[in-house]
């Protein structure tokens, strides 16, 4: 399995027969194998997770399907010829697209997180589902609400075996940057986890891997050093 970190929260996952592209809005796209089915996911409409440029991929790729969160309204494109190429999902839904099963969780911000079963693998992309604790910006009540909403989402997949996960690790949260990633890892059986949503501060990877919080699962965290970095992963 080849995984390419494109930028921010955008990843490309290439499996034997299919390719998954998550939350692309800018950056250098890898060359897609045109013999493989391409699925393009967008977790919500925020400009750091979605741009309508994703529809231009259909101009060059012969077999592409878009899976979009319901809050995304910009769904029309001259490059997407068939309405069947666009699948819209709300949170807490489960559907099957081709041979791929998709479950959505409600974000603690907006949109959805994706849990995908494809080619015998389980893949999770959080979108903006995270423990958003903003000290000094939000009131204690607001922070508690965000905590409860995040935990209720992750608790829906508690104990789940997950092969590959993409999880926020946001340095803007200061001392509370680790909360969501740590809760996710302690409440799922995840084999490999990629940090994302780092706003270009890749040093947060080292900080977390070497922290007391990650002691029990640090070997499962993939260190990202720059955009357009590729990893070959055996699962």
From TrEMBL:
It comes from the Bacteria. Pfam families: Lactamase_B_3. This is MBL fold metallo-hydrolase. It comes from Intestinibacter bartlettii.
